[in-house]
């Protein structure tokens, strides 16, 4: 009994209000020194039990509310929680596209806020499909909001590595497929060469142009850094294969060149038999006999590489990619190309118009001769020299062409 009293010695609590725990002073004195500690111990034990029961009931009530009405009195709803997840939680797997805002740039790239647990980084080599030294060269500055692709993770700080270059590659391949479907001519800059051909840059992608598909006889070194008109031959993104043809592009361009047209050209090289002229990516030959009505014994006395001049198209072979040119037909008087080439270029369009009129007259006379010997064809000749069906006001037996003059040599 003494040991029990010793265990509770020193416990302190406020006076109890319940009457059943109170004792009379004289009784306490009769029991002895141990009566007061024993009564206090019983009181403390009963009070702790009551507190535990109250706490247990409070937890039971809370559990029941969570089971029956979990959101009662809570301002943050389930919809708010879903919206928060959509805003701050995203798929960080490789190849995923995410929206982000650039907030800092440096010499190596840019930091991007993609609302993740940590910032993401855009390296300068992944900032553009073209080679750049600083991200700001392509408009990547603080405040820019753009779509990026996740291409990796930095293990040191768990930050994500982003790329714009990958997205631009996808768009470039899509653009090339579209251009191939439309069968259009594009410009490609020659940026390299190998044994089989040259490498041209189109839409930011490197493609191959075989030497067999280049219309000119220029070497790879001569073509380096020059732009060539090209057409798509093969576009295969899966195999990363892009093939062009310069010959097909030249054939399309030549189809638009009419005989008698005057074009501006640049002398590329001189040969004993004539001069090769570049007319907008097409190589044409100005034969020595077509330079002037007067005899030209040495082409170098009239033309030099690099000279710019006006020439008239005489003919072109689309399959072979050959164009025949003339300055002789543009001379106001014979020999002007040797004595006064400036006058020839000033009068070029006027002389070319005269040449085309003579050609039209010759063709009209040829048609008239044909109708003279074939009146049964049922065709008539218009005032412009164009053959067509008989008009309603013409006799069914055809026209009387007995008075049509003979064709004259032009």
UniProtKB/TrEMBL annotation:
* Cell compartments where the protein resides: Plastid, Chloroplast
Gene3D superfamilies xrefs = Nucleic acid-binding proteins
Q: Family assignment?
A: Belongs to the bacterial ribosomal protein bS1 family.
Q: Which UniProt keywords apply?
A: Chloroplast, Plastid, Repeat, Ribonucleoprotein, Ribosomal protein, RNA-binding, Transit peptide
Record keyword Chloroplast present: yes
- GO BP term, pick one: translation
Q: Taxonomically, which superkingdom?
A: Eukaryota
Q: Where is the signal peptide?
A: none
Give the start-end ranges of region Disordered: 1-22
Q: Which organism is it from?
A: Gossypium anomalum
Give the matching Pfam families: S1 (PF00575)
Q: Where is the S1 motif domain?
A: 95-165, 183-247, 260-328
Q: What is its main location?
A: plastid
Question: One MF term from GO for this chain?
Answer: mRNA binding
Q: Where is the composition biased (Low complexity)?
A: 11-20
Instruction: Please verify whether the record's keywords include Transmembrane.
Output: no
Task: Name the chain's protein.
Answer: Small ribosomal subunit protein bS1c
Assigned GO CC terms = chloroplast stroma; ribonucleoprotein complex; ribosome
């Amino acid at each position: 009994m003494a040991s029990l009293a010793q265990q509770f010695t020193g416990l302190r609590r406020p006076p109890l209000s319940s009457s059943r725990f109170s004792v009379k002073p004289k009784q306490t004195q009769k029991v002895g020194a141990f009566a007061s500690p024993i009564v206090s111990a019983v009181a403390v034990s009963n009070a702790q039990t009551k507190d535990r029961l109250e706490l247990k009931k409070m937890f039971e009530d809370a559990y029941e509310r969570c089971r029956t009405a979990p959101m009662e009195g809570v301002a943050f709803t389930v919809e708010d929680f879903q919206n928060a997840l959509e805003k701050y939680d995203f798929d960080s797997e490789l190849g995923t596209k995410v929206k982000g805002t650039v907030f800092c740039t440096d010499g190596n790239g840019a930091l991007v806020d993609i609302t993740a647990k940590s910032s993401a980084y855009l390296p300068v080599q992944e900032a553009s499909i073209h080679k750049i030294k600083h991200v700001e060269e392509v408009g990547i500055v603080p405040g820019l909001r753009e779509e990026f692709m996740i291409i990796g993770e930095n293990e040191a700080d768990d930050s994500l590595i982003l790329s714009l270059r990958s997205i631009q590659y996808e768009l470039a391949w899509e653009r090339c497929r579209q251009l191939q479907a439309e069968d259009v001519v594009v410009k490609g800059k020659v940026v390299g060469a190998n044994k089989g051909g040259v490498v041209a840059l189109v839409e930011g992608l490197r493609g191959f142009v075989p030497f067999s598909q280049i219309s000119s006889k220029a070497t790879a070194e001569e073509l380096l850094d020059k732009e060539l008109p090209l057409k798509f031959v093969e576009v295969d993104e899966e195999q990363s294969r892009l093939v062009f043809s310069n010959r097909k592009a030249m054939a399309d361009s030549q189809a638009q060149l009419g005989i008698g047209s005057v074009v501006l050209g640049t002398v590329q090289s001189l040969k004993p038999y004539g001069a090769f002229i570049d007319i907008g990516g097409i190589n044409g030959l100005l034969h020595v006999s077509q330079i002037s009505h007067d005899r030209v014994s040495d082409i170098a006395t009239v033309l030099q590489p690099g000279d710019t001049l006006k020439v008239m198209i005489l003919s072109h072979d689309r399959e072979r990619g050959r164009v025949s040119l003339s300055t002789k037909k543009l001379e106001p008087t014979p020999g002007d190309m040797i004595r006064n080439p400036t006058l020839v270029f000033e009068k070029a369009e006027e002389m070319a118009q005269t040449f085309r009129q003579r050609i039209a007259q010759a063709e009209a006379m040829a048609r008239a001769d044909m109708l003279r010997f074939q009146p049964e064809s049922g065709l008539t000749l218009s005032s412009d020299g164009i053959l067509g069906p008989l008009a309603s006001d013409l006799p069914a037996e055809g026209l009387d062409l007995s008075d049509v003059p003979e064709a004259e040599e032009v």
